[in-house]
Amino acid sequence: MWKVLLFVQKNLVWSIPAFMILGVLFGFNYDPRPLQQAIIPFTFLMVYPMMVTLNVREVFAGGDTGLQLTTQVINFALIPFLGYSIGQYFFADQPLIALGLLLTSLLPTSGMTISWTGFAKGNISAAIKMTVIGLILGSMATPAYLQWLMGTVVTIPLPQVFQQIIMIVFLPMLAGYLTQRLLIWKFGNPAYQKDLKPKFPAVSTLGVLGIVFIALALRAQTIISDPTLLLNLLVPLLILYAVNFVFSTLVGKLLFKRGDAIALVYGTVMRNLSIALAIAMTVFGAEGADIALIIALAYIIQVQAAAWYVKFTDRIFGKATEPTSARAATSPQTG
Question: Which domains are assigned to the chain?
């Protein structure tokens, strides 16, 4: 089982589309409604393992204030409004899908931010800070952004949004931190870093695949009856990610050195799709499947784009000439 999880995790570019197809086939041939009972367990599997591997203390290390500030300005002053504008243009008469696109753009950074920064030989220490800061700020800002931008066309159950964010972000963050401290205390930091920490992203992958499977199964009848729906959803997602990649790359090249610029790109383009999916599927009831569909499709573009960007990093920023960090990402994580 463990080897299967590792294989799936290392091949997200294929495993996520495969589980989406399986979800559609299942939902078309069987009643998918009982699967809704598995949403909360799979949500836990998505979020908690990522929290165990986060080094929250990294956020308090100084030295890169300008980089961190620039990253979060892009994350919260640009990308949400880009996602909202694209949603209004393409889905003016489909507010639930527009809401899904907004959720996709609202929650920055994930474990993928750290992993892909490492693969591209960027500043991993800066990427860890971006992940922690983005996670906390995004969780606090999401209810306000949802109400402000979409509250007039979609009923935003703010108490439930706050409750679910506490349940799927802050409680797992606390539990993950306590688990991390317990493992380090019991086995020692070297054993934790080498043997235990690398295992958690694979568990998180299982949660992501489960939620993606459920989201597509619940919408299978609509997808089968209107196969052009997926294409209509992919186009605005491609625009969102393309603009994000281009803008962040230009800012990185103009303002920062190579390692910091790479961290900035992955700290702004990678979105926490796991938490966005969890909010969609747990807060909005039956409508959650409509909202979650475009978020699930975003996984395909995000993972593929991140992998291709690594291949072109040296052409864009030049080859690495200095060590970026003693910490190295070992495998792509979910997000």
Answer: 40-313 (1.20.1530.20)
